[in-house]
Amino acid sequence: MARMLVDGDDVVVRLALRERAAARRREVRVPLAAVRRVTVEADWWRALRGVPRRGVSVPGARSTGTRRHQAGVDFVVVRPGEPVVCVELRPPAPFRLLAVRAPTPAAARAVARDLVRAAPGLDTSTPCRQPLPVPEEDPGGATTPLPEAAPLPRGR
């Protein structure tokens, strides 16, 4: 089973042998300074966003590897019935989110607590993960108009 831990100034996800084969990497390492928010998701599927990019993804059964979406790339190791520790990352990191399963809710909370203690400058404004930005929205809050759709032809 994958383990998420703090190693010096890094967050490290160490993968088990099968997970290594699926993700095609031994571990994932990101700096603690890049951690924006740490949360625990009770439902494994809530941690998934985007489409599988590299790794193994079986709908309803598991997802291990990277997933691509409009805001970047996530690294996930999730399975049904297990809680997930979600670590949102700031842009210099290679991923936007690390989502790693834990065997029990208590173990997930313990990992999250360790990460919160070790990571400097966390965003504690909300205990929830933040949604992905919508491409049509301006970062300043104003929205740009969507292109006009062509009129539909009248029925025959």
Summed up, what is this model?
The protein has 156 residues and is mostly beta strands.
How would you characterize this protein structure?
By secondary structure, the chain is mainly beta. Helices cover 13% and strands 36% of the residues. It has 2 helices and 9 strands. It has helices spanning 17-23, 105-118; strands at 3-7, 10-14, 27-31, 35-41, 51-58, 62-69, 72-78, 84-89, 97-101. The strands form 2 sheets. It has a 6-stranded mixed sheet with strand order 4-8-9-7-6-5. It starts with a strand and ends in a 38-residue tail after the last helix.
Key descriptive features of the protein:
156 residues; three-stranded antiparallel beta sheet; mainly beta; 36% strand
**Amount of helix:** 10-25%
- The number of helices is 2
Order of helices and strands: EEHEEEEEEEH
The radius of gyration is 18 Å
Q: What would you call the quaternary organization?
A: single chain
**Largest sheet, if any?**
6 strands, mixed
Give the tally of β-strands: 9
**What's the rounded overall pLDDT mean?**
85
Shape, per Cα inertia axes: globular
- Taking the alpha carbons of the first and last residues, their distance comes to 59 Å
- Give the neighbour order of strands across the main sheet: 4-8-9-7-6-5
Strand pairing plus helix content: what structural class?
mainly beta
- Uncertain stretches: none
List the domain count as a whole number. Answer: 1
Q: What is the percentage of strand-forming residues? A: 35-45%
